[in-house]
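the two lines:
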Amino acid sequence: MSATALDAQAKRSQQEIRRLRRRALLTLRYVVLVIVAILFLFPIFWSFINSIKLPAEAVAVPPTYLPTEISFENYEELTTYGKIGIAQHVYNSTVVALITVAGSIVLSTLGGYGFARFNFPGKNVLFIMVLSTLMIPFQSILIPLFVMIVQVDLHDTLFGLALVYITFQLPFGIFLMRNSFLAVPHEIEESALLDGCSSLSILYRLMLRLVLPGIVTVAIYAFINSWNEFLAALIFMSDQDKFTLPVFLTTIRYGIWGDVNWGALQAGVIVSIIPSLAIFLALQRYYMDGLMGGAVKN
Amino acid sequence: MIGSIALLNLSWQQRRKLTGLLFVTPTVAFVTVFFIIPLLMTAYMSLHDWPLFGERAFTGLENYQELSKDRQYLKSLDFTFRYTALVTPPIFILGFILASLVRHNIRYIGIFRTIFFLPVVIGLGVSSLLWVWMVDDRIGIFNKILLDLNLVPKAQLFLGRPNTAMNVIILSVVWKTVGFTMILLLAGLQAIPDELYESAEVDGAGYFRKLFYITLPLMRRTIALALVLSVIGSVLSFDQFYIMTRGGPRNSTISIVFWIFNNSFTYFKMGYGAAMSIVLLGILVALTGLQLYVLREKE
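prediction for all of em together
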């Protein structure tokens, strides 16, 4: 065999080794990925498993791994838990979330359009004022907010809580919608403006469709954040009937006379996880857009 | 009527200005009423003895003086910073590892990215309820597994001792938030051109050389952002302590926000709570300032 042929053969086997190594690494990567994925899914899966055990089995000491019998009694118990039942709290959370979504969309769209497309005195100052609130954690202004809300008799109302949530969403919403409007080419509205359309009808008939992805993003964040929020909901609602889901679930965790209904609690956890997860999974792309938009805001 | 006639007399340009102002008015009004005024009110209230009902009285800096003598407050500050210092590294390191794992667009990778991110969209309150049950000494799965594997002699009261309570809470928060850090770092990783790695490989650089000479330096801004966001979140934490330990054992897990909450909404010492909020705000503004500084540096 000639030297060049030997060289070529050595090169081939080297390539072969490299290919095998790469394949082994890839397999290893998948193995690690699957293990980590199982660990991440485990708490949710475990909660679900327990929510479909019989109530007696769900509080068994020590716990069982798999249910001996599948039952939805835990969910049924939730419907009458604490006299009010979970339906009222699902309703409360839903109403607050929907008002928050509607309010955030309307205000962010109007504001974003105004800041992106118009020039008026004080525009920069106002925009900086709105954005600077991103730096103020809502936890530090809850006391005066509470005093104000009590003053106007909006405490213990779903509307009052939603107003507070809308405010928390606004800086992010305005920022995102302004960017969405800025991304629309000017020529599109110019012809409509020349035709004498009013600004509002341009926004409504022309622009809304173009900034729809931004609106969807604002809506998802408004919904998920409002649905999950705990501290403000805990402070602003003292009437049990008005508790949102997370606050209601804490009352189960603290139990009735120390007796915790763990099965019902896990059923409640599943009920409150589902809407956020479903919305996230269905509209993941828009959610990630918002995350990136929010992250690069600085 | 008069208004609309006056409007007609304006030039087109003036009308545009007015329209723009009208568009942003609702937003600006909201932000003013619900952010700016409360912010000023926090400062104002912090100078008063302000019960929920009854007489309020101007007390000057007394609330702030009381703060320096409030042992639980100092303990809460200490606890919050210790918690932040302990929870930030695992979130960051695990976030980085996960981001590296899902970096390349290999088959099914989207599913894994989604799974690792899922806990982020679950509320912290609800995830705390999930974890408090998993680590329960009587019915929790953790103790069940540990007992079955003979790793512990008897069921552990994880939330009953300060050290293990801290560890369990850290574990739950890492699970809940690491996906967020992962996605931020993933974006940073993917922004690094592949050619850089290829030429480094030609020069014989190994994994760690590439990590320390290419990846980490080029991701400085993203890393800073991920760290600062994670630190801010930890300094403001409340849900996990309120739900999982109720501040216990022996008041060892009361965070700053928790102590503000107790003073303002349990004891209704709202002026005092406001003074603490101002201090908290100071800490947060300093952190955000740091964030802006680090991010600005390179541009």
